[in-house]
Amino acid sequence: MQEIATIDKLDIIQSSMSFVLPFGYNRKSKKDIIGTLSENGYTYFKIDQASDFHNYYGENIIVEGKELEQYFLPYIGQKLFPDSPAQKGFHRFSISIMKSFQLQIRKSILPFTIQSVDITLAPFGIAFMTIRVVLDDHVHELTDVLDFMHHFRTVEPILKEEKGAKVHLVDSGQRLSVHGLLFEVLCPFLKSYLTEEDQLKGYFGSLPYFEDERMYTSAYLVSCEGASITDTHLYRMGALDGRSPDGEAFMSAHNPAYIRGALDQTLHDRWAPYTYTVITEHAYITVTNRPPEEMDRELSQFMGTHYYNFLLHYFYKIMLLRVAFEYSQLDWKRDDEYVKSLIKLITLFSSWYYFQEVSTRSEGKELSKMFRQSFSIGQLFEEVNNTLHELYKNQESINSDRMNMLLFALTVFTVISGIYGMNLVIKDWETSASWKAFQQYNFYEWIALVTAISGIGLSTYLIGSTIGKIVIKRLRNRKAESRL
Predict the structure, then answer these.
(1) Nearest by Cα to 287 from 243, 224, 242, 241
(2) Dist CA 123 CA 289 (whole Å)
(3) C-beta separation of 133 from 117 below 8 A
(4) E strands, 351-446, where?
(5) Do the beta carbons of residue 54 and residue 296 sit within 8 Å?
(6) In tens digits, what is the pLDDT along the chain, a chain of 484 residues?
């Protein structure tokens, strides 16, 4: 009889979580957003002042700017840590919150504290909201921690297993959804800057090409010293398997061989048996059984260098999904200028931001490889390359057809004009001839009349279409600038 994996208990004595919410914004509103963030107490992050942000991560957790600088390749660091919002790159604004809340899931209540919030304005009109959360100091079983993460990351609950969670405001006693907490309590000013799309309703109408309506979860979990960390623990972390709708501990797989195979693709066990990291398309979680007082350095790296490594690859994934989505929406017959803007978008993204190697450290390279694998970045980028090839091929075909039609029209008029000795004038045209005169035209005069009228019409059309294309191109360029 085949062995069935069992759900093992694991006590978590400390949990530091980050929930990352991507959204779209209009590039034309960038200055307004920055002004609004400043008015609401957000501070612009500069790498040479990174240590000043120590109160954003928790007690004794300091992210050093020099470490961030040395972790990434120079051309990557310039993009991730620009000196001012006027430069191209990722612009992070942070604020310390330090407020207590409660998350009610069914009959259980889990107190938590929101430490800080980041708003990162990334290139091409994509932004990220990062909410840093810690559970209270009590010991929690792994199942409850995962259940907390599973429900808190759900911005718009749709499925049965996602529903039933409410956030309690300790001060007022008010109950809100996670969506309400984010956009009514933490960042109410952001709602007016979110881009809207017709394809999807609700929050993620902002990014209609995104795959679901949940935040990405990262966490650093500290278990009891010397505790045994099993494959089932690690698999459940990657899948965020907490509790089923009836409150029972849940795991989405029972076959130990399947679980082991999944971990072979998602587990970074360089520091086993003390520390493990699991990276999946839903979560990026590190768990350790070492004493908490010995983990300040590792937690600083998790909040600093590793966080930016993740954020960069998450940006890659969203941008590649965006290109695939916009390509699928093309109307080849009407969207000639849009095709050109999409070619420009792909080219700029590939040349400015997309790089295979991003880190100088061996661990950074290993994590980068895992992010690329979990996010299917290689496959998505290959599809984008194929898309770019098809766009160029289509543009060449369209331009060739237009040139052939123009040459055909010019050739016809040239031949006819040559037959007539470059003289298409009929004497009747020199006077105010009546329509009855046309009835007396011979065959050659009718050819001259049709040729003259069609020539005038073609010239008018060419002039009008050229002016129209110039106007449309300028309008499209203005719109494209808000996308880039």
Answers:
(1) 224
(2) 39
(3) no
(4) none
(5) no
(6) 568 888 989 999 999 999 999 998 888 889 999 999 999 999 999 998 877 777 788 877 888 888 999 999 998 999 999 999 999 999 999 999 999 999 999 888 999 999 999 999 999 999 999 999 999 878 999 999 999 999 999 887 777 667 778 999 988 888 999 989 999 999 999 988 887 654 444 444 467 666 557 899 999 999 999 999 999 999 999 999 999 888 899 999 999 999 999 999 999 999 999 999 999 999 999 999 999 888 888 999 999 999 999 999 999 999 998 888 877 776 655 556 677 777 788 888 888 889 889 998 999 999 999 999 999 999 888 888 777 767 667 666 666 666 767 677 667 666 666 655 455 555 555 555 555 566 666 666 677 667 777 777 777 777 777 777 777 667 666 655 555 5
Cα–Cα distance for residue pair 289/277, rounded to 1 Å: 12
Bridge partner residues of 22 (DSSP):
128
Non-local CB neighbours of 367 within 8 Å, separated by 6+ positions: 268, 277, 279, 306, 309, 310, 359
Cβ atoms of residues 154 and 162 within 8 Å: yes
Closest listed residue to residue 231, CA positions, set 274, 271, 270, 276: 276
Cα distance between residue 3 and residue 255, in whole Å: 7
| The total number of residues written for the chain in this structure | 484
Please tell me whether residue 289 adopts helix, strand or coil conformation. coil
Apex 467 CA angle, 465 and 470, nearest 5: 105
- Shortest CA distance to 277 belongs to which of 289, 266, 265, 292? 266
- Residue 377 to residue 353: CA distance in whole angstroms: 14
